[in-house]
């Protein structure tokens, strides 16, 4: 009998020890994951918003940005406003929720850029009246897009796709020259949002039996984007918990899926 008790007791003790060890590891994993946040919220329809509070939590102390980087931020503020304003007008005209949803997302993108402008001391943080731009080039482009998109729902969706591929081109160009880590974080995520929104518009056009020919990006790049799934946000380490990227996806300048070799500096991130 003693042998039998011993036979069953030892494995039971080992099993309890293993459970305790697993529980400790799980608790540690949860604690570590709480140090990381995503700054993107992606809805089922592809609408992709920046989470303001999470972005604020991951911004890094960096040297002052250059005049060129400030100019890029100011230009991107206008570009995000352009997208938001056009989508609101097209929603009012056609009532399609895709325009309302993405317009609200563009509002969050605009807020993310303004957050950076404030962070670096810019006084140019006012948004202004809907459909009004201080830059005459943006004013002219806005007028053209409204004219084009108001023709029909088909043209409205085409206009949405056009705006998103324009954003993709411009964000990729910006990411090829900026070195400030906070701008890189924001622009990488805006780029994901633009690719997701492009996928959403193309999906709507496909359902109507329509095809789309890109203007600002190549056919190959468009194909790579629309044949890949909606992109989620990386996990970034909260400010104050240390730096260094944690097995991330690199600086996402590619088309569609996240690629790149990453950097060994800047804000911590986990692949997501």
Question: Topology of this structure?
Answer:
Elements lengths: L1 H32 L2 E3 L1 E3 L5 E3 L1 H7 L8 H28 L2 H23 L16 H14 L3 H23 L5 H27 L11 H8 L8 E3 L31 E2 L2
Antiparallel strand pairs: 1-4, 2-3, 4-5
Helix pairs in contact: 3-4, 3-5, 3-6, 4-7, 6-7
Keywords summarizing the entry:
272 residues, mainly alpha, three-stranded antiparallel beta sheet, two-stranded antiparallel sheet, 8 helices
Succession of helices and strands? HEEEHHHHHHHEE
Oligomer: single chain
Number of strands: 5
Distance between the termini: 55 Å
- Structural class category: mainly alpha
Low-confidence stretches: 21-32, 241-267
Helix content: 55-70%
Number of helices: 8
Main sheet: strand order: 1-4-5
Beta-strand residue fraction? 5-15%
Could you characterize what this model shows?
With 272 residues, the protein is mainly α. The strands form two sheets. Strands 1-4-5 form a three-stranded antiparallel β-sheet, covered by helices on one side.
In short:
The protein is mostly helical and about 270 residues long. It is about 60% helix and about 5% strand.
């Amino acid at each position: 009998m003693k042998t039998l008790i011993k036979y069953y007791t030892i494995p039971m003790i080992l099993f309890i020890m293993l459970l305790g060890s697993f529980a400790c590891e799980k608790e540690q994993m949860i604690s570590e994951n709480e140090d990381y946040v995503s700054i993107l919220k992606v809805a089922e329809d592809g609408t992709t918003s920046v989470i303001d509070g999470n972005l604020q939590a991951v911004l890094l102390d960096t040297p002052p940005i250059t005049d060129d980087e400030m100019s890029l931020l100011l230009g991107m503020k206008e570009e995000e406003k352009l997208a938001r304003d056009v989508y609101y007008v097209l929603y009012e005209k056609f009532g399609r929720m895709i325009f309302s949803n993405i317009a609200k997302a563009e509002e969050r993108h605009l807020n993310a850029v303004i957050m950076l402008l404030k962070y670096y001391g810019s006084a140019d943080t006012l948004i202004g009246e809907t459909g009004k731009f201080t830059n005459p080039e943006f004013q002219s482009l806005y007028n053209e897009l409204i004219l084009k998109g108001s023709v029909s729902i088909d043209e409205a969706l085409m206009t949405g796709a056009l705006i998103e591929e324009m954003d993709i081109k411009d964000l990729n160009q910006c990411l090829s020259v900026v070195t400030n880590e906070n701008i890189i974080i924001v622009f990488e995520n805006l780029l994901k949002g633009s690719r997701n929104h492009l996928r959403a518009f193309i999906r709507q056009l496909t359902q109507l039996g329509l095809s789309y020919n890109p203007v600002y990006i190549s056919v190959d790049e468009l194909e790579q984007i629309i044949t890949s799934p909606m992109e989620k946000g990386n996990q970034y380490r909260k400010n104050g918990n240390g730096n260094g990227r944690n097995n991330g996806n690199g600086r996402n300048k590619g088309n569609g899926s996240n690629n790149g070799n990453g950097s060994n500096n800047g804000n911590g991130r986990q692949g997501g």
